[in-house]
Amino acid sequence: MLMWGGRIQALFRLAVRCILCVMGSASLPPGFRFHPTDEELVGYYLKRKNEGLEIELEVIPVIDLYKFDPWELPEKSFLPKRDMEWFFFCNRDKKYPNGSRTNRATKSGYWKATGKDRKIVCESQGCRKDLGFLSWKSTTGG
């Protein structure tokens, strides 16, 4: 989760390995790649988003990330689908109204935090949280 000015938003840098890879046509020049550093994501993109300032090129969509399975993410990205790394802004969805736990359940499974949160320090401060996807287990035993 990235905290900025009292507003909590999550910026997830997902490198999800999927069997499905949908190639999409884009209006970007050949060879264009979007590979920002963590500091650039927090210090420019998230900061400007939270302050309501314009971002020169809208490359990070706002979605309800926790409602989607990994194979649904490529079609939600604004970037060419050939990369297996996508960037999204997502508001935090609480599991319980008075709690601090995040609701990460989808139709097919849930997003689980993996590893330690890493501090990102630049002009502003944030935290990087990596997520893995786990499928729901069969209750029928088969």
TrEMBL record:
Signal peptide residue numbers: 1-26
GO molecular function: DNA binding
Transmembrane helix is among the record's keywords: no
Residue ranges occupied by any NAC domain in the UniProt entry: 28-142
Keywords, in A-Z order: DNA-binding, Nucleus, Signal, Transcription, Transcription regulation
A Pfam family reported for this protein in Swiss-Prot or TrEMBL: NAM
UniProt keyword Acyltransferase, yes or no: no
InterPro entries with a match to the protein in the record: NAC-dom (IPR003441), NAC_dom_sf (IPR036093)
Protein name as catalogued: NAC domain containing protein 71
Organism listed in the record: Abeliophyllum distichum
